[in-house]
Amino acid sequence: MILVFGSINFDIALHTARLPAAGETVIGATPSLSPGGKGANQAAGAARAGAEVRLVARVGNDALADAALAGPQAAGVDLSGVKASPAATGCASIWVGADGENRILVASGANAEARADDVADANLGPGTLVVLQMEVPTAENWRLARRAKAAGARVLLNLAPAAAIPPTALDDIDILVVNEGEGAVLTGHAAGDGATRVAALRVLAARHGLEVVLTLGAEGARHIAAGGVTAVPALPVSVLDTTAAGDTFVGVLAAGLDAGLEIAPALRGASVAAALCCTRAGAQTSQPDAGEIAAHLDALPGSGY
What CA–CA distance (Å, rounded) separates 291 from 134? Predict the structure, then answer.
């Protein structure tokens, strides 16, 4: 089983031919409303890929809560671990440019009240893969990771949005997923300094006994472990919207690992899913299911495995 501890948001996306500069108003954007939040996105992505998923999170006692939960519910995610909070349901404003790249502003709301104690001990054990992100209080992530590790569960952390990680917390992580910017924050090497950053991530992997997955958008990903670095290709697609591509990658990677796949096929499935996500607008509304992922696997170029 996959247990996702993370955020739930309601997304308000604005698609525009040109993003506004500071102090400028641009008329003519096309709006879309959809469920989002990194925790909910990753949970929905894993469920659509065929995994049994439980989401532990917080929403508000307001009109946005049901709308925000509609996506993971439709994907088949177990929402029995979602609690109502006096704070407002989390909300995100997403600006999407003509090239599909986005800028996101998040109001955390109830996500700031998520607590590791919301996860029962009975849900942690050798058969559980715990998935974490950084849109809830980070101290709660570290508390849950320590409990999960002690109980024999595997722990996957997506360092998004980027923030510092205590070295002791890294000892509790089995798989760390970062993009270029997050990898730069983690290692202290600039986003453009690719080779040096990969070398630093390899040292970090060896030091803490974990595996690192560095996602590179259209350039695919790198699987970094103490033993070496392996390239994972990307599926060539025409990009419409990159929103939730990273979350879809994480969710499908988790689903593959939970199903007993080795890291290589799990990463290939995740890469395909993330690319397909980019061909459609929205967050959870853009995620592929297991059948669609499988149908496109043969089109993925060979990897270094």
Answer: 30
The catalytic position among 11, 62, 172, 247 is: 247
Q: Which domain holds residue 42?
A: 2-8+36-89+110-299
Residue 19 covered by a domain? no
Flag whether the pTM goes above 0.90: yes
Whether 16 is in a domain gets the answer no
pLDDT tens over the chain, length 305 residues: 999 999 999 989 898 998 888 999 989 889 888 899 999 999 999 999 999 999 999 999 999 999 999 999 999 999 999 999 999 999 989 898 888 777 889 899 999 999 999 999 999 999 999 999 999 999 999 999 999 999 999 999 999 999 999 999 999 999 999 999 999 888 887 666 678 888 899 999 999 999 999 999 989 999 999 888 999 999 999 888 787 899 999 999 999 999 999 999 999 999 999 999 999 877 788 899 999 999 999 989 886 55
Residue 247 known to be catalytic = yes
For residue 116, what is the domain's CATH number?
3.40.1190.20
Q: How many domains does the chain have?
A: 1
| C-alpha separations of 72 from 230, 282, 285 in Å | 32, 14, 10
Contacts of 218 (CB under 8 A, 6+ apart): 234, 236, 239
Q: Is residue 246 part of a domain?
A: yes
